[in-house]
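Can't paste images in this forum, so I'm doing it all in text. The chain is below; anyone willing to post the predicted structure tokens underneath?
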Amino acid sequence: MTATGMDPTPPKPGLDSASLDYVEGMYLAYLDDPGAVPVEWQRYFAVGGNGHAERPGRGPSFVARSLFDPLGGVSAQHRDRIGSDAASLHQRLDRLVRNYRVRGHRLADLNPLGWEPFEAPEVDPAYYGFTQDDLDRPVLNTTLAGAHTLGEVIDGLKETYTRRIGAQFMHIDSLAVRAWLQQRMESTRNHLALSRERQLRILTKLTDAVLFEEFIQKKYLGAKSFSLEGAETLIPLLDLALEKAAAQGAREVVLG
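Text version of the structure:
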């Protein structure tokens, strides 16, 4: 029979499931050299066993992927570009995060009268080439709770370092102390959850401090005194600090 008269659906050789290894060996031999297998196998493989003329190559028809090659099937050039983009993103983000830790206190809103904010381009995302389109990109983050995208990390840094608390700590020589402060501040974004009882206690101590100041000024009019004015919050702060110290085993506190 000539090739032009070849039956498009040749009969399959008598096979069963136990013949899989044999058929696979024949098929691999056919891929290397069609003339190396009998004519009936040539006819069968020539139409792919399903009536459609085709000649697939070796290897699986699906894109191979693995834990060590998650970008399987992607060209080396494209893979390098994807890897370099991700590395560049995290490099720039690391610089931004560090500068927030170093300079963020200069942007904190500490003046109740309001003044022009301090110019700090090194904490501006645009300074590192970030755009609005980058804000939804996922990033690796280990300190800011609940932040999984670039935009969420930036919002967390602003909330931690540029609100009403100015945290200046990167000059501390001890790496352990810096790491402890950083973890405490960034994991909570400098928010302290207080129970109602604790809030009432702070209010009571704050009120005591203010009333005591007024009493001293009226009772000893014109006498020299060292005032708490402007630092009344020191009293509830000391109260809580002493309580915490006692709970951790302190037996004596000296103030000077």
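Confidence is low (pLDDT under 50) at residues 1-11. Helices lie at 20-32, 39-46, 76-103, 150-161, 175-188, 196-219, 234-247.
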